[in-house]
Amino acid sequence: MHAEARFPDLAVPVRAAGPLTRLGLGWLVPPGPVAVLHPFDEGASFYRHGWNSWSPSGWRRLTEPPLRIGGDPARLLTADDAANDTPLAHSGSAVGALEGPDGRVLLLGALGLGTPRVGADRHVLHGTTEDAGDGWFLAWGREDEVFGAYAALLAERLGGRDRRAGAVWSSWYSYYEDVDEDLLARTVEDLRGHPIDVVQLDDGWEAAVGDWTANDRFPSGMAATASRIAAAGFRPGLWLAPLIALPRSRFARDHPELLVQDDDGRPLVTGTNWGTGYFALDTTRPEALDHLADVVRRAVADGFTYLKLDFLYAGAVRGRRSRDLPRERVYRDAVEHVRRAAGDDVHLLGCGAPMLPSAGVFDGVRVGPDTAAFWDNGERRDDPSGSGARNAIAASIPRTWLRPLYELDPDAVYFRRRRSLLDEPQRQLVEDAATVLGFRQTSDPMAWLDAGERDELDAWLRAPPAVERFGRTRWRVDGREVDFAPVL
Ligand code: 9PG
Question: For a tag on the chain, would you pick the N or C end, based on fewer CB atoms within 10 A?
Answer without folding.
Answer: N
